[in-house]
């Protein structure tokens, strides 16, 4: 149900004609600890895994508008708690609207900044 809502919202934001998307080589994420204020940018190639403060972030792919590589990126991510292996987030995260489909964690935030090209 949530995925359907996200897809409908994304579709509503697109112009009437479909935009072609290209796949970037990877993604740049920003992770923040809201208690300590520690902030870290994480650069990940496609199909890779990184860790941040007891969480494992798995990145599948990052896409961006074909005619604007520095434009709005969206990435397919899965975030797991390493302590008990629970999935905290799974889905597409959109750089321009991170709250639309966000990581739900009381202490940490992770969001997409942009795709990488190489």
Short descriptors:
10% helix; mainly beta; three-stranded antiparallel sheet; 1 helix; 118 residues
What does this structure look like?
- The protein has 118 residues and is mostly beta strands.
- It contains 1 helix and 8 strands, in the order H-E-E-E-E-E-E-E-E.
- The chain has one helix spanning 2-13, and strands at residues 21-23, 26-33, 39-45, 48-52, 55-65, 74-81, 87-94, 108-116.
- Strands 1, 4, 5, 6 and 7 form a 5-stranded antiparallel β-sheet that branches. A 3-stranded antiparallel β-sheet has the order 3-2-8, with no helix packed on it.
- Strand 5 (55-65) and strand 6 form a beta hairpin.
How far the N terminus sits from the C terminus, by CA atoms, comes to 35 Å
Using the CA coordinates, give the radius of gyration: 14 Å
Q: Order of helices and strands, N to C? A: HEEEEEEEE
Helix count?
A: 1
Q: Name the poorly predicted regions.
A: none
Overall body shape: globular
Structural class: mainly beta
Oligomeric grouping of the chains: single chain
Characterize this entry briefly:
The chain has one helix and eight strands, in the order αββββββββ.
Strand and helix map with partners:
Elements: H1 2-13, E1 21-23, E2 26-33, E3 39-45, E4 48-52, E5 55-65, E6 74-81, E7 87-94, E8 108-116
């Amino acid at each position: 149900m949530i995925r359907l809502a996200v897809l409908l919202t994304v579709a509503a934001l697109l112009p009437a004609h479909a935009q072609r998307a290209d796949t970037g080589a990877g993604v740049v994420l920003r992770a923040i600890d809201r208690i300590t204020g520690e902030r870290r940018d994480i650069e990940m190639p496609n199909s890779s895994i990184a860790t941040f403060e007891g969480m494992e972030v798995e990145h599948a792919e990052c896409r961006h508008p074909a005619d604007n590589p520095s434009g709005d990126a969206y990435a397919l991510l899965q975030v797991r708690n390493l302590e008990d292996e629970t999935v905290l987030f799974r889905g597409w995260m959109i750089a321009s609207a991170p709250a639309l489909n966000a990581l739900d964690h009381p202490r940490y935030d992770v969001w997409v900044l942009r795709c990488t090209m190489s």
